[in-house]
């Protein structure tokens, strides 16, 4: 009975609300709207850049791109309520990117607040007012673009030491298309209308993003696509191609239902690497030259955890993602993206804090659960009962197995009923 209950909880948590209740209205609207300032200035996108950008992201500029990227915004949930810290998004290939943005937002909600806000406690921090929601969304978008431009670390450009000032690029749509429909280029209504804006300081970038935040935020708008395009152009087309390690590869080529891992890594580290290991590995055999595979070059503030089935060993997750500097992880569990987090900044710095603690799991589909993780089970004996742990692991839900990929042999308890 216990196993079936836990399994049912996990299955319901992984399912999307519209899959459980088809007649249910999925997303309530916010009660406040952002001001819609007309886009002024910028440089119209050049034909060469437009075609190269579309091809690098979607694989071809002669075919229509994935339609969901033109109608998925970075949309906030109603302010001041439960889950007000969260973004809401449908389940499609944008989900990985939106979830990674969500993780960066949680960093700002929990750990980048002033002292007065911090004194209110984590529960209040996770039910932010409208102004705080807007501030955090603005900061998260700006931070991601700035990181992709190399604004936080020279490590975003392996083997290159440069003193040049970072140049962030933001793209916003206008009404005039600068490339006509042809056999070589299929108009998508957005890419060919873009204006490019460049920034050399994070402060100026944040001011600009806040002014035009509605273009990123509006539900049914192209916010996810604008952010991805801005990140790619800030990183540089040639550098992103090098990150992918295949001149013919595209970011969304052959991606899974919720988007490729490389987009998550791009948002978290500023490099669109398809690899999760630390540093660089040289892969080859006696018949071929060893080819370098660039993974994660520096410890990330926000981490990444993966569980894709008991037999999957293909993803070598390094410690720089498994043990980030803050207790927030983007998760990929059997094809579903979510965020796992703890509200104690010192969790990963203090051994005693990791003995027994709570973690929260959230998806941008609206699922939320709280679990208690207890790592003290084998402290007294110093050894584990292999048979007992094997039985426990077999009975574990996929989410529990994902958590144990970080805290091996931990006892995990579900607290209450998950919100869906």
From TrEMBL:
Keywords: Hydrolase, Protease, Thiol protease, Ubl conjugation pathway
Pfam families assigned: MINDY-3_4_CD
Catalytic activity: Thiol-dependent hydrolysis of ester, thioester, amide, peptide and isopeptide bonds formed by the C-terminal Gly of ubiquitin (a 76-residue protein attached to proteins as an intracellular targeting signal)
GO biological process terms on file: protein K48-linked deubiquitination; proteolysis
Domain Deubiquitinating enzyme MINDY-3/4 conserved: 54-416
Domain of life: Eukaryota
EC number, as in UniProt: 3.4.19.12
InterPro entries: MINDY-3/4_CD, MINY3/4
Molecular-function GO term, any one: K48-linked deubiquitinase activity
Role of this protein: Hydrolase that can remove 'Lys-48'-linked conjugated ubiquitin from proteins.
UniProt family annotation: Belongs to the MINDY deubiquitinase family. FAM188 subfamily.
Name of the protein described by the UniProt record: Ubiquitin carboxyl-terminal hydrolase MINDY
Designated gene of the protein: LOC106743104
């Amino acid at each position: 009975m216990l196993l079936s209950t836990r399994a049912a909880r996990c299955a319901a948590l992984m399912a999307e609300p519209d899959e459980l209740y088809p007649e249910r209205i999925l997303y309530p609207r916010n009660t406040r709207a952002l001001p819609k300032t007309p886009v002024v200035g910028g440089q119209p996108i050049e034909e060469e850049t437009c075609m190269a950008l579309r091809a690098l992201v979607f694989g071809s500029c002669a075919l229509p791109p994935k339609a969901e990227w033109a109608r998925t915004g970075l949309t906030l949930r109603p302010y001041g309520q439960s889950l007000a810290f969260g973004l809401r998004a449908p389940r499609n290939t944008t989900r990985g990117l939106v979830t990674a943005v969500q993780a960066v937002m949680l960093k700002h909600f929990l750990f980048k607040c002033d002292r007065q806000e911090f004194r209110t406690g984590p529960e209040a921090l996770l039910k932010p007012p409208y102004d705080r929601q807007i501030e955090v969304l603005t900061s998260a978008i700006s931070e991601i673009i700035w990181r992709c431009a190399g604004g936080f670390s020279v490590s975003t450009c392996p083997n290159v030491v440069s003193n040049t000032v970072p140049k962030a690029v933001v793209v916003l749509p206008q009404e005039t298309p600068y490339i006509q429909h042809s056999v070589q280029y299929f108009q998508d209504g957005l890419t060919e209308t873009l204006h490019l804006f460049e920034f050399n300081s994070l402060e100026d970038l944040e001011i600009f993003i806040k002014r035009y935040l509605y273009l990123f935020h509006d539900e049914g708008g192209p916010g996810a696509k604008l952010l991805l395009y801005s990140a790619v152009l800030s990183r540089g087309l040639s550098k992103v191609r090098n990150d992918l390690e295949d001149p013919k590869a595209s970011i969304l080529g052959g991606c899974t239902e919720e988007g490729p891992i490389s987009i998550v890594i791009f948002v978290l580290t500023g490099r669109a690497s398809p690899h999760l290991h630390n540093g660089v590995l040289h892969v080859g055999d006696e018949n071929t030259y060893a080819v370098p595979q660039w993974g994660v070059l520096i410890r990330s503030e926000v981490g990444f955890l993966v569980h894709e089935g008991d037999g999957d060993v293909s993803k070598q997750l390094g410690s720089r993602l498994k043990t980030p500097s803050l207790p927030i992880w983007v998760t990929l569990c059997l094809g579903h993206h979510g965020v796992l987090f703890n509200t104690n900044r010192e969790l990963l710095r203090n051994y005693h804090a990791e003995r027994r603690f709570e973690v929260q799991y959230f998806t941008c589909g609206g699922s939320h659960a709280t679990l208690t993780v207890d790592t003290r089970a084998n402290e007294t004996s110093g050894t584990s009962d292999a048979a007992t742990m094997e039985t426990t692991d077999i009975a574990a839900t996929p989410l529990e197995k994902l958590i144990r990929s970080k805290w091996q042999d931990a006892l995990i308890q579900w607290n209450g009923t998950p919100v869906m």
